[in-house]
Amino acid sequence: MRILVIGAGGREHALIWALRKNTTRPLEVFCAPGNAGIAQMADCVPIGVDDLAGLAAYSKESGIDLNVVGPEAPLAAGIVDEFEKRGLRIVGPGRKAARLEASKAFAKDFMGRHIIPTARYRTASSADEAISILRSSEFGDDDSSVVVKADGLAAGKGVIVAPSRAEAIQAIEKLVSGAVSAEATRRIIIEEMLTGREVSLLLFSDGKDFRLMPASRDHKRVGENDTGPNTGGMGSITDAGILDDVTLAQIVRAVVEPTLRGARDEGFPFRGILFIGLMLTADGPRVLEYNVRFGDPETQAILVRLKTDLTEIFQAISETRLGEIEIDWSNDSSACVVLAARGYPAKPEIGSRIEGLSDREKTGEVAVFHAATSRGPNGEWLTAGGRVLGVTATGANLELALARCYGAVARIHWDGMHYRRDIGRSATPGT
Prior knowledge:
Elements: E1 2-7, H1 10-21, E2 28-33, E3 43-44, H2 52-61, E4 66-69, H3 72-77, H4 79-85, E5 90-91, H5 95-102, H6 104-113, E6 121-124, H7 127-135, E7 146-150, E8 159-162, H8 165-179, E9 188-192, E10 197-206, E11 210-212, E12 216-218, E13 221-223, E14 227-230, E15 235-238, H9 245-265, E16 271-281, E17 284-291, H10 298-303, H11 310-318, E18 333-340, H12 357-363, E19 367-370, E20 373-375, E21 381-383, E22 387-395, H13 398-409
Parallel strand pairs: 1-2, 1-4, 2-3, 4-5
Antiparallel strand pairs: 6-9, 7-8, 7-9, 10-11, 10-16, 12-15, 13-14, 15-18, 16-17, 18-22, 19-22, 20-21
Helix pairs in contact: 5-6, 7-8
């Protein structure tokens, strides 16, 4: 079977690792464009994720049996529609369904139409209108916290939690000044600030049935104790203590089922991976956001626990028979710690030599997923982006998983490497 994974980061490395780990069937795996770490497990194809026609032509000409999309941008651009138009089998939502992530305003309005619990919000069509909303009393006084969001895709950097009105106005000015793309800030969302514990719940869906993945928790901010700017993600964990059975059942009833039913009712049955970001408030779960693909680094922490053949799951989604299969997960906890380059998330340094990586990979104690690496003239590993590696481990409990993770991290080094040392802290209530 020939599989093409589209993307270039740690998420795609984890997908390919999982495809190979749990299958007995012979696979030929390709990745476009991939990275140096991925090249150890798959044939990398030099086609960018935004070249939809080029990717479709390659898939057709190469006899690819199944295509899997990693990042959000090609999904929002309609890669699934393009592939299906050519008779190619692909896993992911179509362009209409991808609006759940591509437009926060669309997603919030969708939640409103289908009575899905979320934060109170207003959508502004300009920075001036957003500032006018802030200066009104609608979201409290000058010392009230609010959340400012760019409407469009912003690589995890379009959400700013502002503890005061003045800082919220600064956040708007920063967004429209070029911090994210002009397209992403055509509309700006102002939301009330929710308090509680954040949880990420991912699921597989074929448009008819769904299967949940283990709940996870991401760590977005670059600094310890959740300080500093938002990033694409500095680490993630899975653990039984993240979400109890009663709350999970409530989320399925109030969020998951209405979301999938609403998508069907509006003419875009959701097929692929749905990521629901939640805040567990005193008044119950509230949806923070939808993503329409695997998260990064949630994927790394989740897939190391998968026991079922991932190829079988993807095939079942593409054939609308997900309800026929059961998906097995280990009872372990897991953790992923992201190692980043100096300057990330603003302007990361690249080209630094990574030490200790080969020795770590040979031990087999952890999985090291490459997000942005390259090879030097003598085969040495070099940094090639902001988030460079995702060091991931499992354990019978979260403490053991984290100990294995950080033990591996301690043996990897490059000039300017930084990471959070508090991944997994406050994973369960009261800790």
